[in-house]
Structure formats: C-alpha cells, structure tokens
Amino acid sequence: MQTKIDWIRILYWVGVTALIIGAIDPLEGSVVVGAGSAMLALSSYLSHDRYWKLFLELFFLIIIGIFFLFYFSTLGGFGGNSSLSWWWGALILPYPIGWLLTIILLIVRYWKLKTNR
Predict the structure, then answer these.
(1) Is the residue at 33 inside a domain?
(2) What gap in Å lies between CA 111 and CA 9, rounded to an integer?
(3) Is residue 1 part of a domain?
(4) Which domain holds residue 18?
C-alpha cells in the first residue's frame, strides 16, 4: 500500500526552514527568506488556514523591503560617502518587520494548535 505525500505540509516546513536559514545573512539570504515567505503564504492558503491573509500580507511586506534592499545596493548604499541620506534606509524596514512578524505568527499559530489538542 502506498502512502500519499502531503505536499502542503512539505511546502509549509520547507518555507519555515527557508525563513530561518535565510535570516543568517540578511542581504544574500533575503531571496531565501522571500521564497520561504511565499511558500508559507501558499501552503496556508491551500490548507485553508485562518491566518492565510496575514501570511500573504507579511509576504508582500518582505518583498517590498527586499526590493529596496537590492535597489539601494545597486546605487552603492546610503549614508556615509553615498549621495543618499540615512533616511532612505527606512524603506528597507518592511523586510525585517515582515520577517519578525512572520516568526511571531508562526509561534502564535503553533501555540494555538498545541493548546487546542
């Protein structure tokens, strides 16, 4: 008898792993964090999780922050000898805020699932 593979669960755990591993290096790992966040949003939508809209909104926050992170990196950064002031760095803030809120949401989701058993 063959067992059925639960692709949604695999997608969820790969997303969680990518979200954590990508945070080791914020610039190069940002692509991994973005992909992990996309996997979490997709798996929560496919599994009809009640938090799927929050995962999707946090995914968009992360993507906006990653976009500006790479954009400022191509311009040579900000502050110091650059022509951009330090205030331009505020446009990168959605990336770490989205990552942190996603981790908090994962903890809250786990806690609620654990207490409902």
Answers:
(1) yes
(2) 18
(3) no
(4) 7-115
